[in-house]
Design goal:
306 residues; 22% helix; 7-stranded antiparallel beta sheet; 4-stranded antiparallel beta sheet
Length: 306
Amino acid sequence: MKKIWFLPMLASSTMLTGCASLLQDSATYDPEVSRAGNIGKIFEIEIDDQEVAQGIELGNDSSVMLDSLVWSGSLQTAGRVGGLPGTTSFGKSLGIGFGLALLEDSFKSTPGEKYNSIFGYVREEDVPVVDGIKARYLVARKIFVDRAVNSMKAIIQEAYPNARVVDKTFDYAFNRKVHTVTFSDDKLGCKNSNESDDDNEWCGVYINSYSAWVTPNLTSKVLGEPQFSAYSFTAEGNVNYVGFYGLDKQLPWVETMMKGAHHLPEYTFMYLTSNSKINGRTTPPMIIEKDRVNFFVKPKVNEGAK
């Protein structure tokens, strides 16, 4: 018997239009807050920055750029996204496991938001014009989710080259959808959704997508200028919740998502909370975006610039 789990939606999610728009219009980049914190305040993630443990080197904005000496993935340079506020290059001495272990202690008492989520923007110009404001929003949401699902497929396929990856969508009441990306790997004892109806045997990722409809608005100045008109998909509550199948197999999902950051679309962000169920241990909360990983760590502030 197939059972797809999804979380009850917060009643406040039906009131997303308006408050989020006002915040996005007025927010500016705060150099005394981490890039993760700056992005979080746009999309309803509120976590206080923590002091970093000794021995770890992050950029001045507490983010890590992909680097071929450390991450698996394409080589990127700070110049690629140099127009964004808070962009820095990355110190090459940090390895994923080592870095997570050093950051772990700093966040043991600060678990952050309860749910993992995926959120971001879809440019209005990317959304075909259809009859009805709500109908066009639903087209935008499909574009957002399709991009997220395709990135999850690419991340999993890269991490498990021999795996058989399958994506399926399951519909529920009240316009809720669960989008699954599962894979089979005989050595790991994983099955995909084509091979088994029991999600206890699956390995993979799912996105529980539901949000109140919104109209396009200008993007936040936090993410740089020029701003552009876009549909915004929030992380408020558990509106675009992300979960993982196969937790009993202790698959390294946090590291896998970090390594696969180059597969995320532009202006799509993934928040991973401190959750011992994901990796079998506590990991620091983070926001992953294309080509970089952002931690909620107090940034290095240039005292002379104050």
